[in-house]
Design a protein that fits this description.
five-stranded antiparallel β-sheet; about 15% strand; alpha/beta; about 40% helix; two-stranded parallel ribbon
């Protein structure tokens, strides 16, 4: 064997050895990376599960305090324990906090086919100085037919013609965010309206003990919102008759109350530098029994 061939064979052997070492190094790095990812995934899943359990505890707390309130009070108002919020509660590795809101302090968009509710929604738009043309389109969205109620309305023929087409729900909104799909509702209008509206199942009454000034002004003409708030802060209204005596004003018997059935429990759970946001809609019936209607969870950050 000539020296030239020997050197060629040695060179090939060296290259093969180098290739084997390189492949082994790549394999080792890949395995270490996969192991690191697996550990992080396991840790993330474990943290998610623990945060989820704490958020469910927050729901249990909300249901418990609402049941207790039902036994102790015939009305619902902002001075009760449920309305005071949940203090920051630390636990090993994190903390949770939250609060309970009266969803019947807001105008129920799913009642918009009721003339009284439609009128209040239009009055709210006037108070907020925003356009109200979307209301006819909203009525078409929640009704069960494909006929437009007016030129400002909209059914499938409008929505399927959009660049990103979709169809009308032809039923109640499942969540207030669904309003963004309705013709005429842009981001600016939605942001102005969102704090004062909700999407609840069935017809609901406004609780005058919890409504904002803006919503209160939709209940009639020439109302004195400052006097109303002052009277309510001194002593929550015990009945519509009590309101009439103290405010010298009569409210409609339908669609107004001093009690609430629907509450929104919202909170956040922070655990291991991650945060989970939760919003749970709770229904409390005439016997004080609480039921979870829906739950929305925010992603970890």
């Amino acid at each position: 064997m000539t020296n030239c061939k020997l050197r060629q064979q040695q060179g090939i052997a060296l290259l093969m050895a180098m290739l084997v070492v390189a492949l082994a190094s790549v394999t080792a790095v890949t395995l270490m990376h996969e192991q690191s990812l697996s550990v992080r995934r396991s840790e993330h899943n474990r943290n998610s599960d623990q945060a989820m359990m704490y958020s469910l505890g927050l729901e249990d707390y909300a249901r418990s305090i609402l049941q207790k309130d039902f036994k102790n009070s015939k009305t619902d108002h902002l001075g009760e324990d449920w309305a005071l919020g949940v203090p920051v509660l630390p636990f090993d590795g994190g903390y949770l906090t939250g609060g309970i809101q009266d969803e019947q302090a807001k105008i129920n968009l799913n009642d918009v086919l009721v003339q009284e509710t439609e009128d209040r929604l239009r009055a709210l738009c006037n108070t907020l100085a925003i356009r109200s043309e979307f209301i006819d389109a909203l009525k078409d969205w929640v009704d069960d037919d494909l006929d437009t109620v007016s030129p400002d309305g909209a059914e499938d023929d409008y929505y399927t013609g959009l660049e990103q087409p979709y169809r009308t729900a032809n039923g109640p909104l499942s969540d207030v965010t669904e309003l963004r799909l309705v013709k005429g509702v842009d981001a600016e209008l939605y942001q102005a309206l969102e704090p004062f509206v909700t999407a609840l199942p069935g017809q609901t009454a406004l609780n005058i003990n919890t409504v904002s000034e803006q919503v209160y002004l939709t209940l009639g003409n020439n109302l004195d919102a400052k006097k109303f708030i002052n009277e309510r802060e001194k002593d929550p209204f015990s009945s519509l008759e009590d309101y009439k005596k103290r405010m010298n004003h009569t409210l409609p018997k339908n669609g107004v109350s001093v009690k609430t059935e629907y509450f929104l429990a919202s909170g956040q759970v922070t655990f291991a530098d991650r945060t989970l946001y939760v919003k749970t809609l709770i229904h409390r019936d005439g016997k004080g029994v609480t039921t979870l209607i829906s739950r929305k969870l925010g992603a970890f950050s």
